[in-house]
Amino acid sequence: MEKSKIALVTGGSKGIGAAIAQLLATDGFEIWLNYKSDHQAAQEVARKVKGIGRKCVLLPFDVSDSEEVQSHLTPLLENETPYALVNNAGFNKDVIMAWMTSSEWSDVLKVNLNGFFNVTKPVLNGMLRKKEGRIISVVSTSGQSGMPGQTNYSAAKSGLIGATKALAVETARRNILVNAVSPGFIETEMVKDLPKEKILPMIPMGRFGTPMEVAAVVSFLCSEKASYITGQVIAVNGGAYR
Predict the structure, then answer these.
(1) Which pLDDT belongs to residue 2?
(2) Helical (H) or strand (E) element with 39
(3) Is the Cβ–Cβ distance between 55 and 32 less than 8 Å?
(4) N or C of the chain: less Cβ packing under 10 Å?
(5) SS3 category, 106
């Protein structure tokens, strides 16, 4: 029997990341689940993945800390290489730029951009040797259109879109496909305090999306059905940005 492929999902303890992990497990992937500190939530995702009949390895580390990433991933990567890497770990600290501190700027970039580099670089080396792989980064409508109060977050996600497009060109001939999924307003902790009555009129479909609707696109990009798609940004936003 052919060995199951592995998917590494960062920021996978809740919201979009948890939905991605569970759907990829349903697709047949074994899951390496990264999260920063919410052990209880991560264990619940692992329980659901195992209930689907797949293995789940929990990896508690901060993606912005290169030493932490190396200490957790290096022992695993010596023996196995994930077929799919989903860079979902993200962080926002909303404040208008006139009042933004240097740490509010740099902390957001560290998680979203440095985190992408810290995790993708070591995984990519194995993918290049195997000449196969899928790298999907979860970006944001904020990185495509810009959002007030999110200069730091918009800059980080826009940078991630640029990195996705460049890496896709670098790796295409090695059969490593690199894409981004760009959610709009999704029912997660990130939007729970936002004024829905002001936001819903901005969305042509008139509702927020669900984490599973984002996960479905990631699932597609990890599948053989997406074998000729690379360097793309696929929006999941109900028509809010076109």
Answers:
(1) 64
(2) helix 39-52
(3) no
(4) N
(5) helix
**Under 8 Å CB-to-CB from 242, ≥6 apart: which residues?**
235
Active site residue 153: yes
In angstroms, the Cα distances linking 127 to 2, 11, 84, 100, 195 are: 18, 21, 9, 39, 43
Q: Please, are residues 82 and 222 in contact by the beta-carbon 8 Å criterion?
A: no
What's the average pLDDT block by block, 10 residues per block, for the chain (242 residues)?
87 97 98 96 98 98 97 97 97 89 94 97 97 97 85 94 98 98 89 79 92 98 98 96 74
Element (H, E) at 171: helix 151-171
d(CA 25, CA 189): 23
Taking the model in full, what pTM does it have?
0.95
CA dist 88 and 140 (Å) reads 11
- Six token digits for residue 189: 């902790």
Point out the catalytic residue in the list 35, 83, 153, 228.
Answer: 153
CB 204 within 8 A of CB 240: yes
Contact 118, 74 (CB under 8 A): no
φ/ψ (deg, to 5) at 134: -130, 130
> Which DSSP symbol is given to 182?
E
Q: Cβ neighbours of residue 3 under 8 Å, at least 6 residues apart?
A: none
Instruction: Give the angle subtended at the CA of 200 by the CAs of 197 and 202, to the nearest 5°.
Output: 120
| CA gap 215, 226 in Å, rounded | 14
**Residue 105 near residue 152 (C-beta atoms within 8 A):** yes
- Identify any residues that bridge with 123 across adjacent strands, giving them in sequence order: none
151 touches 100 (CB < 8 A): yes
Tell me if 236 sits within 8 A of 181, measured CB to CB.
yes
